[in-house]
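To illustrate the input format used throughout this study, we show a single complete record. The first block contains the structure-token representation of the backbone; no residue identities are included at this stage. The design step must infer an amino acid for every position from geometry alone.
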């Protein structure tokens, strides 16, 4: 957990760990979560706190960022985006395995569907 222009208090660290634990339950193959908190001092920016998270798994890296009025709201947005990325990725993997399983049971490849019946 890194902070740029902001001190990371114990409360912020505990909140982030508690909320990011959901990502670990969603995908148990998560190896590392890297959180970066940035305080934007530009008044023209919509939110003053920026949160960026990189979630490393064995074969994939998921990244999300959000801006909010406070750290908690930006963290909630980041977690929603990461959940969406991970769940859609797992859905694509599941679809790939389902298609592969159906392909093995097609009539052409099964022994019952051969045209050698007499």
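Output of the design step:
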């Amino acid at each position: 957990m890194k902070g740029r222009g902001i001190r990371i208090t114990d409360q912020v660290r505990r909140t982030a760990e508690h909320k990011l634990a959901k990502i670990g339950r969603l995908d148990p193959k998560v190896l590392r979560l890297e959180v970066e908190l940035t305080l934007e001092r530009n008044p023209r920016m919509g939110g003053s706190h920026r949160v960026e998270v990189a979630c490393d798994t064995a074969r994939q890296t998921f990244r999300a960022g959000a801006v909010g009025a406070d750290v908690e709201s930006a963290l909630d947005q980041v977690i929603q985006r990461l959940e969406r990325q991970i769940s859609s990725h797992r859905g694509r993997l599941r679809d790939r395995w389902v298609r592969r399983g159906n392909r093995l049971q097609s009539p052409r490849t099964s022994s019952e569907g051969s045209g050698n019946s007499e």
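Structural context for interpreting the output: The mean pLDDT is 81. The beta strands are 2-4, 32-39, 49-56, 61-68.
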